[in-house]
């Protein structure tokens, strides 16, 4: 089981390049960045974490600028989106951004995708929240066509294009791993339809649903868990269950608080490993 960290890269906290160097030096396998293009000031959708929505949600750098900064500052660290809100993005542009980061990093990108939770945010991008799962599916499928075909074609309800040229192609073949986020009732259907892995948030039901996923799958499907606490008992449970990766959130703050939280995560890993 691999160990990684997640981060909301904000303009008033430790920069993504410096953070990536520190995380790589500390031996973490991966670093995932959150994405929100904006947060509407008139909010209707409740925050799933309870209470007020943390300000970091509307202070993040652009996801692919952040990924590029982290990738170019490191040589081994896998960098990823945790998650990219594909329903708010043009798939042709996003396909090029993904391929560019993967090529520039030498094939170190993990492409986490999701349909989002903030309805007014996605509405501002022209996406009907009631159709967002279909939008997600079509845009991911269209990007896969662009990554793998010299003259890509895709015809769907929300994405439609004939014979386009788009380079670079990703360094990873056939494309970077697509990690499908979410915990909704139909998420496993999406993982099996167009994902290489499931990327749920840490919740009690993840273990049972992972077993269901593997029972249904006709191919290897990895499970990476986001938001895992620095608790060796939780880590042991996930390791025994066969998870491929666990990811712990770091605070959007200066170097000192980030280092202290990373140290707590490392202590939990050391306790698990008996070192």
Structural features:
alpha/beta; eight-stranded parallel barrel; oxidoreductase; 275 residues; oxidoreductase activity; two-stranded antiparallel ribbon; TIM Barrel; globular; monooxygenase
Q: Please count the beta strands (DSSP E, at least 2 residues each).
A: 10
Q: What's the structural domain tally?
A: 1
Mean pLDDT value: 97
CATH topology: TIM Barrel
| Count of runs of 4 or more consecutive helical residues | 9
In the CATH scheme, the class would be Alpha Beta
Order of H and E elements: EHEHEHEHHEEEHEHEHEH
Arrangement of strands in the largest sheet: 1-2-3-4-7-8-9-10
Shape: globular
Task: Name the beta content range.
Answer: 15-25%
C-alpha termini separation? 16 Å
Task: Summarize the main sheet.
Answer: 8 strands, parallel, barrel
The helix/strand class is alpha/beta
Radius of gyration based on Cα positions: 18 Å
| CATH architecture heading | Alpha-Beta Barrel
List the uncertain runs. Answer: none
The helix content is 25-40%
By CATH, the superfamily comes out as Luciferase-like domain
Topology diagram in text:
Layout: E1 2-7, H1 16-25, E2 30-33, H2 63-72, E3 78-85, H3 91-104, E4 109-114, H4 119-124, H5 132-148, E5 152-155, E6 160-164, E7 178-181, H6 187-194, E8 197-199, H7 206-216, E9 222-226, H8 232-241, E10 245-249, H9 255-273
Parallel strand pairs: 1-2, 1-10, 2-3, 3-4, 4-7, 7-8, 8-9, 9-10
Antiparallel strand pairs: 5-6
Overview of this protein structure:
The strands form two sheets. Strands 1-2-3-4-7-8-9-10 form an eight-stranded parallel beta barrel, surrounded by five helices. The chain has a two-stranded antiparallel ribbon with strand order 5-6. The longest helix is centred in the last third of the chain and has 19 residues. It has 275 residues and is α/β, with parallel strands linked by helices. The chain has one domain: Luciferase-like domain (TIM Barrel, Alpha-Beta Barrel). It is globular. Helix 2 packs parallel to helix 3 and helix 8 packs across helix 9. The protein is built from nine helices and ten strands. The two termini are 16 Å apart. The mean pLDDT is 97. Its EC number is 1.-.-.-. It comes from Angustibacter luteus. InterPro entries: Lucif-like_OxRdtase_Rv2161c, Luciferase-like_dom, Luciferase-like_sf, SsuD_RutA_monooxygenase. Keywords: Flavoprotein, FMN, Monooxygenase, Oxidoreductase. This is LLM class F420-dependent oxidoreductase.
């Amino acid at each position: 089981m691999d160990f990684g960290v997640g981060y909301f890269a904000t303009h008033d906290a430790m920069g993504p390049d410096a953070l990536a160097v520190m995380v790589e030096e500390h031996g973490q396998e991966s670093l995932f960045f959150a994405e929100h293009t904006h947060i509407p000031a008139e909010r209707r959708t409740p925050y799933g974490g309870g209470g007020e929505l943390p300000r970091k949600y509307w202070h993040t750098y652009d996801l692919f600028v952040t990924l590029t900064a982290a990738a170019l500052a490191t040589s081994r660290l896998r960098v990823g989106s945790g998650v990219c809100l594909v329903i708010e993005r043009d798939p042709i542009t996003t396909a090029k951004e993904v391929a560019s980061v993967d090529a520039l990093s030498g094939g170190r990108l993990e492409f986490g995708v999701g349909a989002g939770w903030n309805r007014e945010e996605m509405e501002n991008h022209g996406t009907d929240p009631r159709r967002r799962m279909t939008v997600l599916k079509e845009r991911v499928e269209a990007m896969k066509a662009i990554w793998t075909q010299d003259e890509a074609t895709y015809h769907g309800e929300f994405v439609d294009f004939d014979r386009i040229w788009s380079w670079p192609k990703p360094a990873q073949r056939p494309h970077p791993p697509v990690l499908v986020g979410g915990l909704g009732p139909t998420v496993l259907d999406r993982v099996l339809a167009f994902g290489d892995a499931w990327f749920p948030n840490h919740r009690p039901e993840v273990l049972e649903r992972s077993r269901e996923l593997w029972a249904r799958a006709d191919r290897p499907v990895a499970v990476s868990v986001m938001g895992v606490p620095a608790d060796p008992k939780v880590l042991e449970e996930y390791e025994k269950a066969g998870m491929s990766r666990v990811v712990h959130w770091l605070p959007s703050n200066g170097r000192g608080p980030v280092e202290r939280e990373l140290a707590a995560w490392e202590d939990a890993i050391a306790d698990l490993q008996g070192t």
